[in-house]
Amino acid sequence: MVQRRTLIKAIPALALSPALAFAEPSTQQWDRQFDVVVLGAGGAGLAAALTAAGRGLSVVVYEKADNIGGDTLNSSGFFNAAGLGKVADAPKNHAEEMLALGGGLNDPELVRTFTERCPEALRWLESLGMQFESKPYKIYGTRQYRSYRPHRPRGTGYIHVLGEACLKAGVVIQSATAALNLYQDPETRRVLGVQVAHQGERIAVRARRGVVLATGGFGANHEMLRQHAPAVASLEHDSAIGATGDGHLLAERAGAELVNMKYVEIVPGGPVSIAHVIRLDIYPD
User: 130 to each of 119, 126, 151, how far by Cα in Å?
Assistant: First the structure.
């Protein structure tokens, strides 16, 4: 499996692609309006949508595939959180290990925030109905027993729990809807909304508070692989069919700089049959 872990660094004044849609705030005709627009209905997108809805905001999630879930469904499902088990561990140790494995390329502040909030995030998921085994595992990429395995297979539990919670919170989820362009203020470059396509119709959606890009990686986009990570472009992958870097491309056209694109995670494995694969990060039931 090939997964993409990328930082998107915003910069104010890059030359923008002609494909980008600029809009005068006073003249743009909006077909729909929400406080927050989320692009991508995998685990990250659904979690972001639920968080925004919990703060009283109106939220819509657009997913280009026919079904929600994305690469979260393909994941092993393990959730890493330090300090919850009986083994002597702490978020500080988790952060130090991540920084060491990152070779100094990852952002220390983001790593610290991530590792400090992991236990809280796991408990939040449990409050929504997500169930994990009580004992932690030690899987690849860590030297500690801090990986918690869901009761439901692989990543299905996350999507089931988050999807149900989003619907109960009033989040609108629309599948088979692809994002085409971001609308920006021509002077400030602030993102105002997004243009999406659904059943042949192009729809202008205003995002009063912001657009969340949660479209996943680009493991299924061979052109982007050849451009950014040619050393692994010929490898087989089991990324979701929709993992084609849509969010990366939208962000880049909006003036963002994509960094660390050549660094990828490779998980050993291979197909046993049409219906079964062996992968290092998937434990047998």
Answer: 14, 4, 8
CA distance 130 to 113: 22
Alpha-carbon dihedral sign for residues 16, 21, 24, 25: negative
DSSP code of residue 230: G
Indicate if the alpha-carbon torsion angle 240, 245, 250, 256 is positive or negative.
positive
Give the total number of structural domains in the chain.
Answer: 2
C-alpha to C-alpha distance for 247 and 237, rounded to whole angstroms: 19
Regarding whether 127 and 110 lie in a shared domain, the answer is yes
Instruction: Calculate the alpha carbon distances from 189 to 15, 179, 182, 271 in Å.
Output: 11, 18, 10, 46
Tokens 């905001």 -> residue: 57
pTM value surpassing 0.85: yes
Average pLDDT over residues 71-87: 89
Same domain? For 61 and 200 the reply is: yes
